[in-house]
Design brief:
- With 246 residues, the protein is of the alpha+beta class.
- The protein is built from five helices and six strands.
- A five-stranded mixed beta barrel has the order 1-3-4-5-6.
- The longest helix is centred in the middle third of the chain and has 22 residues, at 146-167.
- The radius of gyration is 19 Å and the shape is globular.
- It starts with a strand and ends in an 18-residue tail after the last helix.
Length: 246
């Protein structure tokens, strides 16, 4: 078992290997993390782990709020995550490699990172200025029939895109060709389809690529059928995920 200790960045979203993660970092605990990462030489990876929040708040309360306006705000590296932070997070996350860490004049940071490797959360340490975690690296196994499944998912995803564009009364952009490598495709589809965090988390922690693709095929068919029967979709931007506030 290969383990590693890395800074931990909890989010209300799921990061997949190969996907880009933009961050607007303003909380002091995460600013401290970025200042520490900047000490790493540019030629070396500036890595931290991203985990999806199961129970807690991405941004800690910084002022008294409802229902008790006199309540003292929670502070510290584990603020918003309870007495045992490990229980507040999903067990499988993703390592992020920060290609860009840019400090602004006000001390906040603009960060652009890319997901690299899946990891399992073993323990969380809240003794420092920011959370760190002991993590077990998870290999990506192909599983049975990942190649044929990838072909089916690719066709289903293109149909989903067409239905989504039609429901939003927009033309479908051709964009870049989708990858045909099964694991890469499985992560791209998992990130692109409009799903809630628990479902995306289920896809992230699938035991192998084939299992993830099999699940995605069912999801894509179901979602496409739903869109087909809708006269239109709400005006919210459905094809883009929001940049994390933190």
């Amino acid at each position: 078992m290969t383990t590693v200790r890395l800074p931990l960045f909890p989010l209300n979203s799921v990061l997949f290997p190969g996907l880009v993660l933009p961050l607007n970092v303003f909380e002091e605990r995460y600013r401290a993390m970025m200042r520490e990462l900047l000490k790493t030489p540019e030629e070396e990876p500036r890595r931290f782990a991203v985990v999806a929040i199961r129970d807690g708040h991405e941004v800690a309360l910084s002022a008294p709020g409802l229902p008790d306006r006199t309540a003292v705000p929670d502070v510290g590296p584990a603020a918003g995550f309870g007495d045992d932070p490990v229980k507040a997070f999903h067990a499988v996350g993703c390592v992020a490699d920060a290609a860009t860490i840019r400090e602004r004049a006000d001390g906040t940071f603009e960060v652009l990172a890319t997901g690299t490797t899946r990891v399992r959360l073993l323990s969380v340490d809240a003794s420092g200025p920011y959370l760190t975690a002991e993590l077990e690296e998870l290999p990506e196994e192909a599983g049975d029939e990942s190649g044929p499944l990838a072909e089916g998912v690719l066709r289903a995803f293109r149909q989903y895109q067409k239905r989504l564009a039609g429901a939003r009364e927009r033309s479908l952009s051709s964009g870049a060709d989708l990858p045909d490598e099964p694991s890469v495709l499985s992560y791209l589809v998992a990130a692109a389809v409009m799903l809630d965090v628990p479902t995306k988390q289920r896809l992230l922690q699938a035991p192998d690529t084939a299992s993830r693709l099999r699940d995605e095929l069912k999801i894509l068919r179901a979602e496409t059928a739903i869109i087909r029967n809708l006269p239109s979709l709400p005006a919210s931007e459905l094809t883009r995920g929001p940049t994390s506030l933190n």
